[in-house]
Structures are given as C-alpha cells and as structure tokens.
Amino acid sequence: MAMIPAAGRSVVFVTGNVKKLEEVIQILGDSFPYKLVAKKIDLPEYQGEPDDISTQKCLEAAKQIQGPVIVEDTCLCFTALGGLPGPYIKWFLEKLKPEGLYKLLAGFEDKSAYALCTFAFSTGNPDDPVKLFKGQTQGHIVEPRGPRDFGWDPCFQPEGYTETYAELPNCFAAAYQARIATTVAERVHVTRAAVALPRYPGPSAPPLSRRAERSMEQQLTTTPPLPRTGHFRTGLKGKQDKK
After folding, report:
1. Do the annotations mark residue 150 as ligand-binding?
2. Is 73 labeled as ligand-binding?
3. Is 74 annotated as contributing to ligand binding?
4. Subcellular location, in the record's words (predicted)?
C-alpha cells in the first residue's frame, strides 16, 4: 500500500531554482494539501526516451530523499529533426544558444516544434510505480526575440501567437502552458491519492465515488488550451495571429 504524506507534511520538489519553486507553488494554489519544498539533488544524466528519463530521475531522487518527491523535465522537440533535441535540450542550448537552435532548422522548411513538460511523482516507496503527467504546447522555432532570462524562450513561438515565450508579458505561468497543465494534473493525482488511500499517520478516509473518480481522471487527461486573450493568473494578454 502506498504511503501518502499526511496533509500538512512535505513533498520535495527537486530543483535548485527558487523561481521555479515559486511558479509551481502559485500554480498549485491553496488546495494542494502538502507543503512543497525545494531541494537540489545531483542526479545522473540519463539517456533514452523522455518517459524513461523522467522515471529514472524520480526513482533516484526518491531513493536519496527517502520520501515523496516530484521531478520535472522539459523537452523541446523539433519535428524536422525527429523530436531532437528533446530531453537533451539543456546541452544543445549550452553550446548553441537560442541563435544556434534557430539555425539548426535553416535547411528545413518545417519549423514546427513542441514543448513537452513531464512531472514525475513518487510516493517514496520503491514498490509504488512512478506516476507521469505530461503537458504539450505546439509552436514554431523562430529567430530569437525577447529577453534571455529563461533558456530557449526567445526562439519558441507558441501556436496562435505572434510573440515568443520570452516576449509574452508576465509569462510566469501563462507562457508555460505545459507546466500549468501537468502541475494541475499532479495536484489532482496527489490529492486523490491522499483521499482514497489511508493517510500516514491517521485513520483511513472513505474511497472516492465512481463519479468522482471519472471526473478526476478526465481532469488528469485534459490539457487546457493556451489562453489567447484576457487575463490568466498573472495578467497575460496574448495576441492572436491575424489571418
């Protein structure tokens, strides 16, 4: 049986980036029943498919923490390159910078790409499977524009927008639609687990009804669209392409 942390206890979010922790805490909101704390952990650089990498990182992090953990991985996948750089975007970016990423597609007509974000959650019990939650944002690779504060943002333009991620105002949450979708999914899953399974310590809670389970499953598999207009959490006002 999975050991789910009791309400008020901590779940470790593996990151050394304070801004990223703040982002996730704000997105999770007050309804998240646990205290999310950041911890920087040195993890091996795994190779393979995104799901495999996320799973291995999460298992290793849980082993080191000896408790529940959340690990995030972000990929940037170019259609013309068969999904590359994918999970290796960190090294591509270090060597090529946003300008180099754009030039990688100089010989290709297809500039489409997608940002893939995966959250991996482990209860800390090695017998429990790692849960993966994924969100995806379609877009195109363009000549870099905007501030250089956050990785490959300047060269990724989300579908339906005329701005790159870097140019979008107040992009704290809205520019990272993939993160929003997966974080919401992660919140629903952990909250559901805490209700449906015995808490530790404490008495067992009644299981969810079938209707409630179906409702939550639908939330887990639904990725909300990137908002095109209006306010969204931090006041983003997106611009649609004119056609």
Report:
1. yes
2. yes
3. yes
4. Cytoplasm
> Distance between CA 62 and CA 12 in Å, rounded?
9
19 assigned binding-site residue: yes
Residue 91 marked in a binding site: no
Task: Tell me how many degrees the CA angle 101-48-166 measures, rounded to the nearest 5.
Answer: 30
- 13-60: pLDDT as tens digits: 998 877 778 877 776 666 667 788 889 988 988 999 999 999 999 999
- Cα dist. 232→137, 215, 240, 242 in Å? 16, 23, 15, 21
Task: Report whether 81 contacts 99 (CB < 8 A).
Answer: no
The whole-model pTM stands at 0.67
**Average pLDDT score, the chain:** 73
Determine if residue 97 is labeled as part of a ligand binding site: no
**Residue 15 assigned ligand-binding role:** yes
* Cα–Cα distance measured from residue 123 to residue 67, given in angstroms and rounded to the nearest whole number: 6
For residues 135 and 61, what is the distance between their CA atoms, to the nearest angstrom? 22
170 is in an annotated binding site: no
Tracing tokens 């646990």 back to the chain, one arrives at 34
Q: Is 39 annotated as a binding residue?
A: no
